[in-house]
Amino acid sequence: MLKYNPKLKTRARTLRTNLTDAEQRLWRRLRGKQFLDIQFYRQKPIGNYIVDFYAPTARLVIEVDGGHHLNGAQLRYDTQRSKYLEEIGLKVLRFDDRQVLLELESVVEVIFRALYEGLR
User: pLDDT tens-digit profile of 73-105?
Assistant: First the structure.
């Protein structure tokens, strides 16, 4: 089990009840072990961060980024967060809201490949 900051639990619960449209759409495809019987968690605390989706079996993190992730400060934060996650052995996939909303099947295909590779 990965360590996390316990102070993030309340915030993670709040985020779980307030998913963006893109996160909700992707969650419908990830939940219930639909991919290779792999369990996903949403809004999961890891370290000092909360990731959008996490599959521990495949050590895979999926982030769905809104438009605010394109500005300088948020972009630097996201880069730092991805670096930390990769340093602890996790693979990070990033998609923007538009990709999830308009190209869901392509997004799902990338996720499936990453899951398959993560299990090898």
Answer: 778 888 999 999 999 999 999 999 999 999 999
CATH architecture of 6-119: 3-Layer(aba) Sandwich (3.40)
E runs forming strands in the chain? 41-46, 49-55, 60-65, 91-96
**Helix axis angle, 104-119 relative to 21-30, nearest 10°?**
50
Residues in CB range of 104: below 8 A, 6 or more apart: 25, 26, 29
Q: What is the pTM of this model?
A: 0.91
Q: Given the structure tokens 């639990």, which residue do they identify? A: 9
Alpha helix positions (H), 50-103: 72-87, 97-102
